[in-house]
Amino acid sequence: MRILFTILLLTKTFTCFSQETTVSQSYKGTINNKYAVIMDLTTKKDRVTGSYYYVSKQQPIPLNGYLSGNKLILREFNSNDSQKTLATFEGTVTSTSIQGTWKNADGTKSFPFLLNITKGDEKVFAYNFVVNDGSPKYTIKFSVETCEGDECRGNASIKLIDKTTHKLIQVLYSEDLFFYMDKNKKPTTNIIELYGEQSPFIFDDFNFDGNTELAVRNGNNSGYGGPSYDVYLFAPASKEFVLNDQLTTMATENLGMFSTDHKNKRLTTFTKSGCCWHQTSSYVWRNNKPIEVYKVTEDATGAGEYMSVITETLVNGKWNKKVKTYKTSDYYKE
After folding, report:
1. Which CATH number fits domain 123-254: 1.10.3470, 2.40.128, 2.60.40, 2.40.70?
2. What is the mean pLDDT of the chain?
3. What InterPro entries does the entry give (predicted)?
4. For residues 26 and 119, is the Cβ–Cβ distance under 8 A?
5. Is the pTM here over 0.70, yes or no?
6. Fold classified for 5-118
7. What pLDDT score was predicted for residue 10?
């Protein structure tokens, strides 16, 4: 996949600055045309510090390095061990771009990167939308790479705006914000239909903590080419949305986005194999993660007169299983 790379670098031309000045600049571009990255850098004298993160993971990686003339060298390292270099960026800086090579620590992997200068409020992508009806707390302003007919997709930059203060809360990214526009040429929100419409943005309380959270469409990578999502939980301490790996996996490895049952405080996923095997799984939120506690498997793969329905329930850490046999024509009778 293509990657969008946005960087805050601290010099207007990066080649001319005084020894006392600390300045900043934004860049966008690609690493090997594959990995989307956001990077923030601070430059003072010839020293450069900052961090970057992969859009798919949202985990910051510290950086430091130096600028010599128009040559930039950055090393990435683990925050728990600043002496151990994980990888390096080496590039040439001009007034409009940075171009060079990313290498891992032992030199076994090497990828080109190209970053182009942007302005802070420049719209990164061509097609721009505003969503006001998804949440009582947030407005979404986003831009997406491509729209043809009623279909939009590709890299997207997503701004969350507080409806009360009108301040920018956070910027999120999707490598493939796939969606269909409605009859008014707008994206839908909060629709989850099995085998049907699934909106690019789903606002809900996924961990039942009372906070509004957000799932963002990221391509069609779930079962049978269905919709997949990056799922973000709200962190009250930092007041930010943080990508949750377990919920993102649930919204990628099944049949689209999971459903949320607030009355019973459960999340439900659906999956299938072929025409005749279906499974529904339910999860509770426990110890800061989803735990599968119930599943029903409908198995008619034998193509015979009878089928099995297997019900499994987690009790005291052990699965209790019940199997019932039905006449297939009776079970699926409308």
Report:
1. 2.40.128
2. 85
3. XAC2610_dom
4. yes
5. no
6. Lipocalin (2.40.128)
7. 39
